[in-house]
Write a structure and sequence with these properties.
The chain starts with a helix and ends in a 7-residue tail after the last strand. The chain has one domain: Rossmann fold (3-Layer(aba) Sandwich). The chain is an alpha/beta fold and about 270 residues long. It has 14 helices and 7 strands. Helix 6 crosses helix 10. Strand 1, helix 4 and strand 2 form a beta-alpha-beta unit. Strands 3-2-1-4-5-7-6 form a 7-stranded mixed β-sheet, with helices on both faces.
């Protein structure tokens, strides 16, 4: 994993900026207090961590990639950046008041270990907000039409909603809410489905480089062929039919909000 992201990390910041809408939404679900201490798990280059901090909240950023954390430090040396994983944060028990994990859960080695660890480091009544996409949601992306193999590979690494919630509940969390996210046309963080309404984005090599599915060498030939047929369909107008045929109300991504119960429940 670290190697993969060390390679992507080269231009990652150019296209993977913190999206203002997502930043506000993540914080709205977390409901942090100004005196609290919070954890951004799998923080990457710290784009969101830094935005949360700018809004007056105190965050620790943890990521397994040394290269990504070096970039994060350049952005904001005031934040406590640490090498670690969801399964092994290195933090003491009951240490943080809340946790955000954005587009990271599919990189965890073990959901049960990860959620147990995060449960332990979280204080009672603390919330955890996971932002992810489920295999079911991803099957509804029109990208499947042009890059079927790439999407199969991407979907394969995504844990199902059931396995995520089962692991959370098993660790002691109480699931509070699911909130679907639909891609906004002005999305600033160019992750996998960023071009939902604007297919032209996928022709930008820099955007593709920042998306692990596209920048994987295994997909190189398919990506070239897929882009060629996407270009033809955009030019002929056929793209609108394809996009329409994939329209659904599953949401493109999902917030899962859970809470560690107060001591009394245990």
């Amino acid at each position: 994993m670290e190697a993969k992201y060390n390679q992507i990390g080269i231009d990652y910041n150019a296209t993977r900026k913190a999206d203002p809408f997502l930043t506000v939404k993540l914080l709205a679900h977390l409901q942090p207090q100004e005196k609290g201490l919070y954890l951004d798990i799998g923080c990457g280059t710290g784009n969101y961590t830094n935005e949360f901090q700018k809004k007056g909240f105190d965050f620790i950023g943890i990521d397994p990639s040394k290269l990504m954390l070096e970039k994060a430090k350049l952005k904001n040396p005031e934040i406590d950046w640490r090498i670690g994983t969801a399964e092994n944060t290195g933090l003491p028990n009951d240490y943080v008041n809340g946790i955000i994990g954005s587009l990271t859960i599919h990189h965890w080695k073990d959901l049960n270990t990860g959620f147990s660890e995060l449960y332990n480091v979280l204080q009672p009544n603390g919330k955890i907000v996971i932002f992810t996409s489920t295999p079911k949601q991803m099957k509804g992306y029109w990208l499947n039409h042009y890059f079927p193999k790439m999407l199969v590979d991407s979907i394969f690494q995504m844990p199902s909603l059931e396995s995520e919630t089962t692991a959370m509940i098993k660790s002691g969390f109480e699931i509070k809410e699911f909130d679907k996210y639909f891609i906004q046309p002005d999305l600033e963080d160019k992750f996998l489905y960023c071009g939902k309404q604007n297919p032209e984005l996928y022709f930008d090599p820099q955007i593709r480089q920042g998306i692990s599915s596209f920048s994987s060498l295994a997909n190189k030939t398919e990506v070239e062929q897929g882009l060629k047929s996407l270009r033809e369909d955009i030019d002929s107008g056929k793209i609108s039919e394809i996009i329409k045929s994939y329209k659904n109300d599953l949401g493109d991504y999902l917030y899962i909000i859970a809470q560690k119960p107060s001591i009394h429940n245990h």
